[in-house]
Amino acid sequence: MDIDDILASVDRGAGASSASTAIDHQLLTRFWVAERAVSEVLPWPTALMERMMDRVRWQIETIEDLAASSSDAPDPSSKSNNATLNLRLSILQTDLARTQFLIRSVLRTRLAKLSKHSMHYLVLLSSRSTNPSATQSQTQPSQSSMDTSTATNTRPEDSVPDISSVTDLSPLSEAEAQFLHTHQSLLASHYAGSFMGAFPMNLRRLDDNAGGTSMVQGPENREVVFVRCLGGEVPVIVAAAAAEEDAIDIGVTMRMGDVWVVRWEGVRDAWERGEVELL
Amino acid sequence: MSYYDVDSILTDAQKLPCTFELEVPGLGILEGNPGEDIKAGTRMDLPLWLGEMLSIGARLGTSRLVTLDMPDALSERVMNALKADPRTVDLRALAPHFYSLSERILEIFEEEEMVDVLSDTFKKRAAEIADHAHNPRGAVGDGVDFLRGLDETERQLFRSAHDRAKEMRIWSGEAKRK
Amino acid sequence: MAFPHPRGIIPSEIAFLAEMEMVTVVPRQRLEGLELLGGPIEPLVPPRRASLPLWLALLLKRQRRANIIPPAWLHPDPLGLILEVESQHQDYKNAFSPPPPLPGQPSVQDRAALEPIARPQYTPDGDRYYPSPPFLAQNTAQASTSARDMPALPFHWVEVGNMLLDAASDDLVDPDQTRRLLKDLREVRMAKMRSGVDVLDAAATGGGGVALTGVGAMEVGEERGFVAGVVNGLRKIGASKEQARREAMAEQRANGGYDGTQDDEEEDYMEF
Question: Does C210 touch chain A (CB under 8 A)?
Fold first, then answer.
């Protein structure tokens, strides 16, 4: 046990009560179902995941301690005790494995989405960057590379936005942001080495949008999802014609307990407020 | 159109009847006559992406290079057949990416009635697809012909319905018992 | 990074979710309470009834350490009634029978007169949280509602029914008849789902949607890919028409030519 764990265990406080354990588990479960249901990466629930990871760590220790105590005391008189000990161990282990499955599935789903839409999320994050060189690489696409005759901006790696100075990583966790940048950089240099290096200078970017088709592909938020309405009444709301920025179209109204097939973009805000759940 | 989507690339490669409005020097290669000119009034089938690009002048109101026509797959005759009975039309023979092509065509031509006919066709055929997909013995009889005539969008629909139905049977133990 | 599954949880994952439903057991041996990651487990003291998550109840049942008391709905009488409603009742010709109410939701009979009152719990982060299946007691022995209420199929009826028939059929009343009724129910409801293709264009436009209230988790899982595929297809075919409609509306608005009712609606939303 290292010092952080000891401090954490002293500091369990609110997160350690049984009621919040149960609610957190329900929240994790609901989040897993939601993450599996949509094609965008949902906002990383930092506090919840920290509490869950702490609990998983404690539970592993509990199980190890219990397992050690069973092998320490080969006392024949406690045979019946040992039988329930084994039962308790198998219950604790099953419970642990189930929770670990949820966490792994959430992480793998998110990594799959990040890999699929890597440039989209890098561009999204770097647009918040305060570092001018990072925004530059993203706001000046292909043209700049066509004009310059020098060797700058002509390697696929150069089109991977720099997110090192970005502080708001939403919807990603810190580890995910790191993965995203490292993964895309590796991929870009692999492309450069294997085939893109042989392309003409102006065809070596990964964020080109010449010809009206962008190479940066984002998730499709117009896809439909199955939702259950949990609040009293929840309307489906989508942005109106692109000409007006604030204009909205109000669609059907869902009532508590209803299950609807609707566009994800129309219920996303209500989902963030917890008034609908994804199925 | 989506950059990395193979179906969307293949859709853009489908051909469309085009008529040249102007004489174009040296473009005879399109007709198989390299070095020759293309005369005004020449009709030929060009891939959607090329035809659309050459016709852009038409939409800007300046002199246009070519005018586009409806592809055979979306002709009046086909629309009438779809209105009569959508299930008996072999969409795959008309165009392997029939619906994706329609989508692109409807971006270019304003054809409200065609939208209605195609929506109705898609729904009626989808219901039929669902029935076949849930049949654990696979396609039988007329079904074989119908399924052979599915376009790419419909094939994906069939695959997803079929896979889920199969997963379901495996979970509930029906598939193993058989 | 390969993740082989399509969008939306698949049947085996839906069953995993259903195993979190609480069921009632009669333990056959003692076991002290346990602090699990899913929440605390009460001590087991035979013959006192206890509520356990289904996965644990099944684990104990397979080792003959407990018997499971089936949920009230998993019995030939209520299932027969529900089947009758699903297949004969005029109101439910094209809809599923109503699901058990959520906390704060009036029962079916009172729904016209009473407004639902959402009763949130609060998460450790202070956000509102409305519990829903599998975290409502819809499958415990006590779950039977008042006598005048129609019996209802819980969200995870297919999975819970199937798993209990598999592992605990000796705890059920007339398991063969129950199995037959579950199969009939599945068929009647699948047919409804299938015939619903006709109305799916309602979900293909911006703020539109199709109601499937009463649908079960496994039924969603089975039809998700198909329904989403049909709606996406219809959306793409209709895209040009929707664009034209929206542009016309925007133009109308820009000319100040839209009526006041729409204004009111938007204000309602803002207050909300």
Answer: yes
Complete DSSP assignment for C122-172: E-TTS-EE---TTSSSSSSGGG---TTSPP---TTHHHHHHHHHHH-GGGS
Residue limits of CATH 1.20.58.2050 in chain B: 1-69, 72-178
Provide the ipTM.
0.88
What backbone torsions phi and psi does residue C66 show, to the nearest 5 degrees?
-160, 155
> How far B41 CA sits from the closest chain A CA (Å)?
27
| Structure token pair of residue B85 | 């009975």
Domains in chain A: boundaries: 3-114, 118-212, 224-278
How confident is the model at residue B28, as a pLDDT?
Answer: 83
- Is B99 exposed, middle or buried (CB count within 10 Å of its CB: 0-12, 13-18, 19+)? buried
pLDDT on residue B156: 92
Q: Cα C128 to the chain's mean position, in Å? A: 21
Residues above pLDDT 70, as percent of chain C: 89
Q: What pLDDT sits at residue A131?
A: 59
d(CA A174, CA A50): 12
- Classify domain B1-69 by CATH number: 1.20.58.2050
The secondary structure element, H or E, covering residue A186 is helix A174-194
Strand partners, C48: none
Task: Copy the structure tokens of residue C153.
Answer: 């199929």
Which residues in chain C are contacts of B110 at CB distance < 8 A?
240, 244
- Name the residue range of residue C228's domain: 217-271
What does the pLDDT look like over B27-39, one tens digit per residue?
Answer: 888 888 888 888 8
Percentage helix, strand, coil, to 5, in chain C?
50, 10, 40
Chain C residues 102-121 with a CB less than 8 Å from chain A: 102, 104-105, 115-118, 120-121
User: Encoding tokens for residue C29?
Assistant: 């041996």
The pLDDT of A53-67, averaged and rounded, is: 94
**Do C141 and C67 form a contact (C-beta atoms < 8 A)?**
no
Please count the structural domains in chain C: 1
Beta-carbon pairs below 8 A across chains B and C:
89
* Architecture in CATH for domain A224-278: 3-Layer(aba) Sandwich (3.40)
Q: Return the residue matching tokens 């979710």.
A: C17
Q: How many CB pairs under 8 A join A and C?
A: 229
Q: What is the mean pLDDT of residues C212-231?
A: 92
Chain A contact for C131 (CB, 8 A cutoff): yes
Q: Which helix (H) or strand (E) holds C56?
A: helix C54-62
Looking at chain A, the number of H-run helices and the number of E-run strands are 9, 5
Cis peptide preceding B71, ω within 30 of 0: no
The amino acid present at B111, given as its one-letter code, is E
Q: What digits encode the pLDDT tens for the residues B111-143?
A: 889 999 999 999 999 989 988 888 766 666 777
Residues A212, C219: contact at Cβ < 8 Å? no
User: For residues B65 and B52, what is the distance between their CA atoms, to the nearest angstrom?
Assistant: 10
What number does CATH give the domain B72-178?
1.20.58.2050
In a domain, C96, yes or no: no
> If you measure CA to CA, which chain A residue comes closest to B53?
A211
Euclidean distance between CA atoms A267 and A254, whole angstroms: 10
